[in-house]
Give the backbone structure.
Amino acid sequence: MAKGIRGAVDGIKAALQRHEKRATPSGLDCALADRIDFLNPEHWDALTRDASFFLCRDYRRLLEQHRPEGMQLRYALVYRDSRPIVALAAQVLEVRGSQLANLPDSRMRKKALEQIRTRLLVCGSLVSSGFHGLAFAPDEEPDALWHGVAEALYRIRRADRLHGQIDYVMIKDLDDARHAAATPLRDFSYRPLATEPEMAMAIRPHWKDFAGYLADLNSNYRSKARKIVKQVEDAGYRIEHDVDVMAHDARLHALYSAVEQRASTRLSALPPGYFGALAQLAGPQRMRCTLIRNDAEIVGFITTIKDGTRALGYYVGLDYAVNATVPLYLRLLQCLIDDAIALGCEELSFGRTAAEPKASLGAQAHASHVWLRHRLPAVNALVREIFKRVTPDEAPQRRPFKGQD
């Protein structure tokens, strides 16, 4: 009994300490902006120089010009003793329940979901997968950095009330190492949630092209891979690598939209012109677009972005009528490997969905996390209980390479 009482008292003390920490000014300073050019460019560049491509100022300007409908962009620089220590990129958008559950055959449920609306503040990128919303000064303690993140997001949320009440704040796409360092966020009522794992594969140094990759597969998987190549060729389609995206932007957007409309979660849809503008900005040294086509039309495409030493499988588009009889999607996944090799990358991220075919290509699951909080303490308590019961599906494990048996 005494231990139980002491435990309850300790819990109350800890909760009071967390509340006091949240309510006490940190001594950090913040500069908030709605556009990247409103912030000090030297300070932003100093923090993001070695971070993701999606944090560079040129890309941020591109997204401002080609942002999804309804999305508003927000930025912050956090300072300690007049020295920048955190660069933060975020988005605000209103989300309807129907965007979180694609139910075309259930009109009643879809109508009910349409009535559910909430506003999200997301630190990270809703148009790319990865740790693309934060950059830190290298010589600062995690407690100070994450305190700065929490305070900047709080200030953005409070400043945004003229546009409407923000209900949820999310920090997205942390790997295991960043997730472990982010535990100070608990003091600010954030709670972690494991999401679908990222499927990624190391690019072996001796692979010079797709043929080199095939040579490392065991006979069973190599035979399956070659069968996919042959099926596409026999159907009269060819592969075109590193194409002029600007010239095909309208068709690529139509194919992308076909995939987007089928997604179970549809938070943000990219507008026409985005892919062409991105290709022009990134250039052939940082982006490749591969098509599957015949002389009449393009029936599939996939894009690859070089982000540091990693290749990111970015967006894909399909003609689903053709894909029903020709393995377009599987062939496009193979093309990612070829493009990652051509870009000189050390690792390829296939993204998070369709884990089975990606595992069969050699990808392995890497844990991914988000941190989430609601503006109301009572709802935060409920979210905490829900999170305890939510676990992502376990990703399949395959051994396609020689010597893995």
Observations:
- Residues 2-188 form a domain with the Aminopeptidase fold (CATH 3.40.630).
